[in-house]
Amino acid sequence: MSDARTTTTVVTAGAVAAPRMATARVATAELERQRRRPDWGNLLVHLALAACVAVLAFPLYYAFVISTQAIDEVIQKPPRLLPSTHMVENYVEAWRRSGMARLLVNSAIVAIGVAVGKIAISMLSAFAIVYFRFRGAGLVFWSIFLTLMLPIPVRILPTYEVVGNLGWLNTYAGLTVPLMASATATFLFRQFYLTIPNELAEAAQLDGAGPLRFLWSFLLPLSWANIAALFVVLFIYGWNEYFWPLLITNTEEMRTVVIGHRAADLEPHHGRGHDGAAAAGGGHPVHAALVREGAHREREVGCRPVTSPTAAAPPSGRRTASPPSATRSPSAPACWSWTCT
């Protein structure tokens, strides 16, 4: 009797499971059919993206190709779009003639100094504004923030005069210290510190921690994400700075890589074929196009290629800024109440 019931149950389960298995097979076959069917919409989108990448990348690729060629290959028509065999000698020649090692060291010092200085000063100023109570704290913050509305030409002459009076012309201090103030970083750190619970500061006070200990042991570890993001942005800003290093330096030893190698230093030499070195030193698609145009003019007209005009370097003696027209009396120090919240 039990065997009959078991057999009936198995038959019933098999009869129920058979349609489910058939439905699963049909669904699986449909999924396979959809996977094999080409998605023309996605294909067109990817083709458009690939075309955009090619348009953006081709000038950089062409600049690299020209930097590997000799003068005969640069002026070849139609242009050769494959790298040549002169890459090593062109890059070595460009490195030697431009003094690239010194330029890279100067740019690294300026970029790191500016980034670290901006972050340190911004953290201290934001910490003072948020965690100290003194009269005019809001006015001080908005005065710092409003400096973003001052254009650079308005600030450049007074800053140059101060740097000249301090004797910082043509020095690393003159290149970095005037660029260390940052209203944007101060604003970002202030907004972040406002999100820190007041209970954390109160607990630090109860444990006997002073303001600097609270900043070093509590706020600094919590700020590493903001510091890392700001460091990347500020490092790129310091590395790409052009006008201030051009104004403050007067010798090639203190130039940064952005302004240090000039077109006049990378002119092609007759009989040596170093137009590729010029393109290698420039490292820019526009520079590569100018090198190619100059090579064509040299071949057709028989003269040296026209280079971009550069300002003559001032005398090697130290420049001194003109004395200020009027002296300002130092303002009296403010009486602040150093009460930590």
Secondary-structure blueprint of this entry?
Layout: H1 2-36, H2 40-67, H3 71-74, H4 87-98, H5 100-131, H6 137-146, H7 152-166, H8 172-176, H9 183-194, H10 198-206, H11 211-222, H12 224-240, H13 243-248, H14 257-260, H15 275-282, H16 285-301
Helix pairs in contact: 2-15, 2-16, 4-15, 5-9, 5-12, 6-9, 15-16
Question: What can you tell me about this protein's structure?
Answer:
The chain is mostly helical and 341 residues long. The protein has 3 domains: 1-37; 39-98 and 271-305, no CATH class; 100-257, MetI-like (MetI-like fold, Orthogonal Bundle), CATH 1.10.3720. 66% of the residues lie in helices and 0% in strands. It has helices spanning 2-36, 40-67, 71-74, 87-98, 100-131, 137-146, 152-166, 172-176, 183-194, 198-206, 211-222, 224-240, 243-248, 257-260, 275-282, 285-301. α4 (87-98) crosses α15, α5 (100-131) packs across α9 (183-194) and α5 (100-131) crosses α12 (224-240). The longest helix is centred in the N-terminal third of the chain and has 35 residues, at 2-36. The chain starts with a helix and ends in a 40-residue tail after the last helix.
